[in-house]
Amino acid sequence: MGTGTGGETGPVASGRGDRAGAAGRREGGTLVSCSGGWKCLQSAPCDPCAMLCPPDEAELSLEERLQMQSESGTRASRQPSNGEKAAKPGKAPVKQRLNKKGMFFPSFRPVEMSAKKPMPFLRQVVPVTKKVHRDPRFDDLSGEYNPEIFMKTYSFLDTIKKQEKEMVQRQLKKCRDVEQKEKLQQLLNRMTQQEQAQKKQQKRRERELTLKRQQRELAKQGKKPFFLKKSEKRKLELAEKYVELKRSGKLESFLNKKRKRNAVKDKRRLPSQKNL
């Protein structure tokens, strides 16, 4: 142990003892070496151990104090630096995006836009998928068109059309208004034309089916199948038409109309008097 007066100091054991000795010289007291460094013996004693260490660590040994300092250092390293708060383990980090000004803000916030720029009239706020219109007549999902199956499936429409035609005929007989009568007559003519066109298509289909059957039979016999030209098909249609008109007794009127039509065509082909 070493002692010293106000101007003298005892043997120095460490750097901490030097600082304590300097403090004792300034105060003018006597320093005594202790476990924590130097102790001042004066009327108003000052404890350099209490000055250099916390009050609860003043009575601890040097080994225990160093162990406590190492533990406090590891705690400090675990804490986030620059005053940032540590993220809680239960919550996921919030996604952030960069603003035009270079500032980060959460992605769930609305986008900041200038009020000076005019907004577009047709602005798409929420992206909407474009609707694709589907026509069942030209779509493969509806299946292939088979006229025979179609006619069988919707054959009940023919009976409904006949009932509607009869109803229009009854209304036409009872009607007295001229305008309403003309409308009913136009409707009746349209319905009759549709009926005639449907019958014509049905006959043409039956004719094609008969030709296909004949070709199949010829193929079974080992002969080559033949395919009719359009002109030959027209001749067959005309022959069937003549047979039906003769059966109904309208053949003469039909032939007279056809002669007049041909005469008008011949007159148009003749040269006029100006060209002579």
From TrEMBL:
Pfam families: RRP36
Task of the protein: Component of the 90S pre-ribosome involved in the maturation of rRNAs. Required for early cleavages of the pre-RNAs in the 40S ribosomal subunit maturation pathway.
Native source species: Coturnix japonica
GO cellular component terms listed in the entry, alphabetical order: 90S preribosome; nucleolus
Family classification: Belongs to the RRP36 family.
Coiled-coil features, chain-numbered ranges: 161-248
Name of protein: rRNA biogenesis protein RRP36
Subcellular localization: Nucleus, Nucleolus
Region (Disordered): 1-29, 61-95, 251-276
Any Gene Ontology biological process: maturation of SSU-rRNA from tricistronic rRNA transcript (SSU-rRNA, 5.8S rRNA, LSU-rRNA)
Keyword annotations: Coiled coil, Nucleus, Ribonucleoprotein, Ribosome biogenesis, rRNA processing
Lineage: Eukaryota, Metazoa, Chordata, Craniata, Vertebrata
Sequence ranges of Basic and acidic residues compositional bias: 16-28
Comp. bias regions, Basic residues: 256-276
Subunit structure: Associates with 90S and pre-40S pre-ribosomal particles.
Annotated Polar residues bias: 67-82
InterPro entries in the record: RRP36
